[in-house]
C-alpha cells in the first residue's frame, strides 16, 4: 500500500482484492422489470433523453449516431449478449455469469434507433453507466459497443477496445458534499456514481486543504472515511485538516488511528511526530521521527532537539526557584516549536505567580493552549517530576489560592493528586491547600463572632503554611483594625499589597488606618489610588474629599464653605457666576452649547471628573441661554474650559482633549 503526504490518490488493496476474487461472480441473480437494474424499462410518456454517442469499431459494425432515444415498453426477457472485441473474442453475459459494469462506461447507439431500448443500468447525462448495488470500483472498464448482439443498443465490450470513451468530468465540491454516502452497497437516495468513490472525494478534499479551507476539507475526509473506514491515509489527511483548525488533540488521535490501521505508515508517523513536538512531548516525538533508526526529517530533528534543550533548562530553573530563568526558557521552547505545549504555558503562569505578578499570571492562564481531548498517550509524560496533565491542575490550585478561591483550589489540588498520586510535590500541595482553606474558614467564623484576637491567630496559622497569601494578610489586617491596632493593620496591608499591588481591599483599609492616625497625606494618596481603580465609587470619592479638606486644614489653608458635591452645577445668571468664581479652592467652568457636537462629547467626561475630584467645584454655562456671561468672559469658541483658584483665573483651554483637561484638573487640585 502506498500512502500520501498531503492528500494524494492511493489504491485500496482491500477493495482490489475483493474485485479480483469475485471477477467472475454475478452482481445479481436475475434481471426483471421490477429491479432498479432492469435491462429494459419503459419510459414515461413525454420523457425524452438526449444522448450523444461516440464512434465505436468492432469486427462487425461501426458508426456514429446522434439522436433522441425514447424508451419503448418491452416485456422481460433473458438471453445472451454476444459482442466482439477487436474481432478476436466475444463475451457472453447471462443471468448467471455477468461481468460487473464500470461506473465510467460510455454508451453508443447503433445506426438504427428503432429498437428504442436501453441496456442494463442507467445512462447518465455525462455518458457514465451506473449499476445500483454493484461494486463501485472496477479493475477494468466496460463499454457498450455496436457489435452483433441484439441486446439493448450494443454489445458489452471489456476494456474499451475499439471505442473512443469520453472521460468523466471531475467531481465538484458541492457534488461531493451533497451526494449520498453509500456504505455496503446501500444509500438513502440514488447515489451519484463519482461521488461514491472515496478517492475522488479525497481528491476534492485535498483541493480544499490546499486553499486553506480546512473545515470543508474535513467534511470531505469524513465522507471518504465513511466510504472506506479502514484506509489509513484518509485518517492521516483528516489529522492534517484538524491541525489546520488548531484541533491538535483530535489530530493526534487521528494519527494514532491511522497507525493502528497501518503500523508502518511512514507519513502518519512523521505527522504525529510534528504534532507531539508542538505539544512538547519530545520523547514520544523522537520515537516516531526516528522510527527506522534515523530521522525521517533532519530539520525537524533539530527543532526537536532545540525544544528538548530549552524544556530541560526550564525544568531545572523551576526546581532551583529561578523563576525569571524558567520564564525565559519556557518562552524559548515555545518559539523553538512547542507552541501548543500546555505544560510550558502553565510553567509561565507559575513563574509569573511566584514573581508576584498575579494579574499577568491570571491573564496568561486564559491563553494556555488546551489539547482537547488530552491525548491518552501523553497523559503520563512528566514535566519537572509531575505528569503533564496533573501539572495543569497543580498550577491552577496555586492561582485559585492566590485569588482567595480556596474551595476551587482544594478541588484542583484533589484532581492533580488523583492524576499523579506518585508525585511528592503534588501531595504536599494538596495537604497545604486543605489546611490553609480550613484555617481561613475558622478565621472567618471567629471574625463574624467578633472574636478578633482568635481570628487573627487562625489567619496566622494559614500564613504559616502559605506565607505569600495576600487574602490572609488582608483578613488579619481587618482583625487588627477592629482591635484598634492601626500600625499592625497597616503592616499587614503593606504585605498584602506587596503580593497583589492592585488588591483594593488592603488599600482601602490602609487609607482608613491612616485616617485614624491623622496621616492625611498618606490617606489622600491611598484614596487617589483607589479612585483610579474604582472611578465610580461615591464612598471613595467622599472619603477622598474629606481627607483632602483635612490635609488643607493641617497645612493652615483656608477651607471655608467647602462641601462635598458630586454634581456639575449649571449657571443661569451673572450673579451666580460671580459667586462661583469667588468660591475658595478650585472651580472649573465649562462653556458650551447644546447644539455643538464637541460639547456633547465633552460634557459626560466633565461629569466623570466631578465625581473623581470631589474637592473641586465644577460648573457649566450654556452661552446660548446666557449670552451675557459668554460676552463678559470673551468666549468665542466652544467648548472652552476656564479654571479659577480662590477667585483668580489660572488656566483657559479652548477645545481641550480629555487628556489635557484631566491633567489640568489634577494639577490644580493638589
UniProtKB/TrEMBL annotation:
- The biased composition feature labelled Polar residues covers 10-23, 77-91, 172-190
The Gly residues compositionally biased stretches are 146-163
Q: Which UniProt keywords apply?
A: TPR repeat
Give the organism the record lists: Brassica napus
Composition bias, kind Low complexity: at what positions? 48-62, 92-117
Classification via PANTHER family: THIOREDOXIN DOMAIN-CONTAINING PROTEIN, TPR REPEAT-CONTAINING THIOREDOXIN
Region ranges (Disordered): 1-198
Question: Locate the Thioredoxin domain: which residues?
Answer: 573-659
- This protein is called Thioredoxin domain-containing protein
SUPFAM superfamilies annotated for this entry?
Thioredoxin-like, TPR-like
Under the heading InterPro entries, the entry gives: Thioredoxin-like_sf, Thioredoxin_domain, TPR-like_helical_dom_sf, TPR_rpt, TTL1-4
* Positions of TPR repeats: 198-231, 390-423
